[in-house]
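If you are new to this repository, start here. Below is one unmodified record pulled from the training split, so you can see the exact layout before writing a loader.
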Amino acid sequence: MAEELQKVHLYYDDINKIRVIESHVLKETEDLKDTCKDYDTKIQDFGKLINSLLEVLKELGDNVEKKKMAAIGSMNLLKSISKERESEQAKLQAEINDKTMILEQLDSEYDALQILEATQMETIEYLTQIR
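And here is the target side for that same chain:
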């Protein structure tokens, strides 16, 4: 009778229940089902891990971008300060040049006044001797 049932693809299992598939195929199918569930769980865990990794990487990327912008701002500030110092230096150099020119003019005027004073003193001495 078991052979007649097998011809129509019916089988007895270990507890003598009639099945549509053979017991070893059923066991393999159940093992495959369990393996697939394990694989699916592992894939979901892997997906969660990847998502958390992507979040961490995004945070790091945002942090790097902030630091990069801060560094660019600092560089621009430094360049601005450098240009201000150069401008101040040029202004002070121009002021030094002006003061040097005025000093030279005053030196020339002083020399001329000393010569005039010497001449006037000679004239005064000459006039006092004549008297």
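Two things worth knowing about this chain: The helical segments are 2-7, 23-130. Strands lie at 11-12, 18-19.
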